[in-house]
Specification:
Mean pLDDT: 87
Shape: globular
Radius of gyration: 15 Å
Low-confidence stretches: none
Strand order of the largest sheet: 1-2-3-4-5
Order of helices and strands: EEEEEHEE
Number of strands: 7
Number of helices: 1
Largest sheet: 5 strands, antiparallel
Strand content: 25-35%
Structural class: alpha+beta
Helix content: 10-25%
Distance between the termini: 53 Å
Length: about 110
């Protein structure tokens, strides 16, 4: 898997591209100013997603995604979580649809 075929996903209105090569991209979210590093795995068809909150922080592993589209959705959902005071935000968007929270049943 390579990053170049998926560059259209990293729109300049949402992301600032800091570094780009065929196997990885480093971007900053314009909403939260968090920095993300997406690395194509050499052994599996996965994109490894690393994250940091401040430039002075080291990257930490965030998740692994099966596609660049999923990685971008993960970042956007994480941004929504951050901007909502680190509380869950629904609906959560995925490539296959929308995830809504389960409705709690009222106790009788």
């Amino acid at each position: 898997m390579r990053i170049y075929p998926h560059l259209h996903l990293f729109s300049e209105d949402y992301f600032k591209v800091l570094n780009l090569n065929p196997d990885e991209i480093t971007i900053t979210s314009r909403n939260t100013h968090h920095t993300w590093r997406l690395v194509c795995s050499q052994t599996e068809d996965l994109i490894l997603v690393y994250h940091k909150h401040k430039n002075s922080d080291p990257f930490h592993f965030h998740t692994a995604c099966i596609s660049a589209e999923d990685a971008v959705l993960e970042i956007k959902n994480h941004d929504a979580f951050q901007l909502n005071g680190r509380r869950p935000v629904f609906p959560v968007y995925t490539r296959t649809g929308v995830i809504m929270p389960r409705q709690r049943r009222r106790q009788k």
